[in-house]
Prior knowledge:
- There is one protein chain.
- Helices cover 32% and strands 15% of the residues.
- It contains seven helices and eight strands, in the order βαβαααββαβββαβα.
- The protein has helices spanning 15-26, 39-49, 53-62, 85-91, 125-131, 188-205, 231-248; strands at residues 3-7, 33-37, 103-110, 115-119, 141-143, 146-150, 168-172, 213-215.
- Strands 1, 2, 3, 4, 5, 6, 7 and 8 form an eight-stranded mixed sheet that branches.
- Helix 6 links the parallel strand 7 (168-172) and strand 8.
- It is globular, with a radius of gyration of 17 Å.
- The termini are close together.
Amino acid sequence: xxxxxxxxGGGVRGVAHIGAIKALxxxxxxxxHISGSSAGAIVGALYAYGYxxxxxxxxxxxxxxxxxxxxxxxxxxxxxxxxxYPEFNHFIKKDNFNALKKSLSITATDIxxxxxxxxxxxxxxxxxxxxxxxPGIFAPVKIGDSYxxxxxxxxxxxxxxxxxxxxxxxxxxxxxxxxxAIKDLKHSYNVIERAFKLKSVQEDYAKFKDxxxxxxxxxxxxxGAFEKKHLPKIFRIGYDATKEALxxxxxxxxxxxxxxxxx
Length: 263
């Protein structure tokens, strides 16, 4: 049984993906194929590489996201995304898709020609960094002859990559939005993030029909994309929402679930 897992972008709200993985595995559900964008690409890559939810959570806990010591000198952004390479390489020793234990696809946006690129082979860390390079904050990442930014700019919920491959698709979406007050937009990146959401969320919601289960934790709307102090709450919200989705959805009975030895 091929089980697909789609992981959306959403900044630190992506920690909810880790809670979702924990809840899935507790029910004996071990995805075989993963498609991710932005924060979902980071979680998905670490999971596909072989890390369990505890180690992926540790990664998010220890990495400094808005690290202005990584200033982007001479690049269009405040932070040089490629300077995060050593931290990722500490976890991902073999920098290649062929080192993965699960099938993985990562989306990133080619900022020069305005097209979406899906990475499934070759070097691994740069596509991850590119997929998570939030525009206006993180500088584009050079891969080959072009430059790439956040996959969420064109596809924040890349379910398309799994439709022809998987028997069952589970989507985890952590980038929903509610109405906000002006006091909630405290920083320039809050405004950029809000504008980003307004474009993508309606397109993403339309793709939920392609999933057998969608985990959509509405409580995440109150957390900003870069607010690390709420990681335990975000993790728990993702965990609880996934347990509830599995409980209420009859499409995925336990007898179809895989185990790690079968993956």
